[in-house]
Amino acid sequence: MPVALITGASQGLGRALARDLSADGWSLVLDARGEERLTEAVFGMDPARTRALPGDVTDHQHRVELVAAAWDLGGLDLLVNNASHLGPSPMPRLADYPTVDLARVLEVDVVAPHALLREALPLLRRTGGTVVDISSDAAVEAYEGWGGYGAAKAALDHLSAVLAIEEPDLRVYAVDPGDMRTAMHQAAFPGEDISDRPEPETVVPALRALLDRRPPSGRYRAAELVAGALR
Asked: What is the pLDDT of residue 196?
């Protein structure tokens, strides 16, 4: 069965995708910073096919351990760079954005996915695998307060696009999932009611459409995929 490595898998979209793939027989390597939440996320999954490794994806040794766990499970067919850092909340204007906070956003959202990709590429090349980088509409639209996060996701989009050219045997997707009812989205709108946003599980069919049909590498919006853009 195929093997997937998913970062940020203890909650939100990462958790929803992990549970869906596990139910479909995939072997999984799952990462998150919080050990307790990650343990809860993998409850009920087949322990023979699941490796839950708590840690910070910006840490080199942790990334080495993630890829080693995939190797132990048989290789790597799918890398999902889902872990993200929003930055300060409430979200500051760029004129007030602390440099140390911007550096952290870029480290988590751009540098770490690239570093993990470099570590995982030998396994992905063996399988002609797939890379999914979770993006945002803030990467292509200018929203007040979203300068740090948006800039990081724009950079991640560009990394995805260049990787697709440099590694034509892989499928490389930057995916904008749209608004979701997640802890990160709540942090972006502190004190506001976000109960009208869809649950992360509603985005999983869009990701599965990419994995199952493997269209050309590129940037995709989940809403379009769910609406049948790949028919």
From this structure: 75
Q: What are φ and ψ of residue 88, in 5° steps?
A: -60, 150
How many domains does the chain contain in total? 1
Instruction: Give the structural domain span for 96.
Output: 3-226
pLDDT > 70 in the chain, percent: 94
Give yes or no for residue 190 having a pLDDT over 80. Answer: no
Contact at 8 Å (CB) between 63 and 115?
A: yes
Pairing of strands 171-176, 27-32: unpaired
At 228, which helix (H) or strand (E)?
none
- 231 inside domain: no
Q: How many CA atoms lie within 13 A of 214 on its CB side?
A: 11
Average pLDDT, the chain: 93
Q: Tens of pLDDT along 152-164?
A: 999 999 999 999 9
- Cis peptide upstream of residue 90 (ω within 30 degrees of 0): yes
CATH classification of the domain holding 175: 3.40.50.720
> For residue 80, what are the β-bridge partners?
6, 132
The strands making up 78-81's β-sheet, listed across from edge to edge, are: 50-54, 27-32, 3-6, 78-81, 130-134, 171-176, 218-221
Mean local confidence (pLDDT), 199-209:
91
d(CA 228, CA 58): 36
Structure tokens at 80: 């999902």
